[in-house]
Fold:
Amino acid sequence: MQMCRPARRTYSAPMTGSANEHDMARSETSSDMPRETPRGRVLDKAQPAGTDPIDAVDAPSSLSSLNNPGAVKDLTKESESYTHGHHESVLRSHRRRTAANSAAFLLPHLLSDMTLLDVGCGPGTVTVDLAERLTAGSVVGVDASDDVLESARGLADAHGTKNISFEHANAYELPFEDDSFDVVFAHQLLQHLSDPVAALREMKRVARPGGFVAVRDADYEAMTWFPESPELTEWNMLYHEVTHTYGFEPDAGRRLASWVRDAGFDPASIEPGASVWCYATPDDRTWWGGLWAERCTQSNFAVQAKDSALADDVALEQLAQGWREWAAAPDGWFAVLNGEVLARA
Ligand SMILES: C[S@@+](CC[C@H](N)C(=O)[O-])C[C@H]1O[C@@H](n2cnc3c(N)ncnc32)[C@H](O)[C@@H]1O
Structure:
């Protein structure tokens, strides 16, 4: 989708190493002296009047939308554009997920004969893992992407998991009767929806009275890492800008309990919590840093950053290089805070 903003800017994070081809490319595109924002960001001065990037960087999402009048108002629930897409680098991230590392808060409540719906199941690693625990029950995974559903079906076949099925469905209009499932689960979905409360109401509708609705989402602002990296700081800011431009909330983790309340769940039934993924071993750094380096240049995130005039190829390659440098740092450490909520329908 092409946005209305005509401007394109390059990011010019402070140089951290010796000059390389990206540094040289950057200096070619940013000949004026850069200026710093209050948050320490260095911006290219070659920005046309009326498109001051400071407004876009620091504005709350509603103002970001005003700065990009074509961004949100053209999107309907049916046409929302999933930020990450399903590039191999994205799926490499999702395929690491298991019930143990992504749904631990739900596991103590599962009984072997329960029925469970996984909304926005993606490639299905968590979904299949849950089905293998519900030995006398059954699981349905739904997603808006047919390609990723094919991948999920292949995984279930490879595991020989029989009590599972996958269907195409929109989280806002689940194709199930009221009160259909004992458990309705959504992992890393609500942050990608423009109306997470509407989706939660729909999840509540298809859960049986007294059944569970369980949701878990990352919180991008709360992510922390070491060593300090201007490129990773830029990446995090850019991620916020892109998702806000498209009408999504990247800091979903801290908002889950509030959204669940707004969706009409009994406040007394809401159990809020948090848990963390941490990547610090050499293998984990290679995996996490490597996949984000690719995601910066090849995933739908890169496409949306460019379409919305928030970054160009040079800037994105600079961020990718930052990820590669982080992965190579022997003392590298990265933590992803996830909010989670269990509630009774
Ligand atoms: C971050 S992935 C999470 C996948 C999986 N739950 C996991 O944790 O591995 C989000 C998934 O939600 C799906 N999705 C996005 N919007 C959706 C919608 N409106 N209805 C159903 N699925 C949607 C995407 O296609 C994507 O597969």
Observations:
- The pocket of S-adenosylmethionine is lined by residues 82, 94, 97, 102, 120-122, 126, 143-145, 148, 170-172, 187-189, 192-193 (CB under 6 Å).
- The two ends are 38 Å apart (CA to CA).
